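ok so dumb question maybe but i'm new to this and my supervisor (M.) told me to 'just get the structure for Mu-like prophage FluMu N-terminal domain-containing protein' and walked off. so i did the thing. is this what she meant?? sequence i used:
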Amino acid sequence: MAKTPRKPDDPVSGPVAAATDAGTAAVDAAARPLPPVVETPPAPAALVVRSRPPQRRRAGRAFSREPVRIAVAELSEADRAAIEADPELIVTLAED
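this is what came out, is it supposed to look like this??
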């Protein structure tokens, strides 16, 4: 059985079909929803720490009722965790 050649403008296999397929792919891509944008909050630049009792020591530092500002870059992960977990310390995050 012999195959008959297709014409260039044949919608089944010619350039028109290729353009239609490309157009369909573009529509399919545009119809897909975009993934949600997840914004991460900026990391705090410093911790501001006060003590509930008159004096308190934690992570090699002394705290009193006067606020002490500590740059986060100066603290190890363990020291920061210890300070933030201490119920006798009042810790706030400063972004500037």
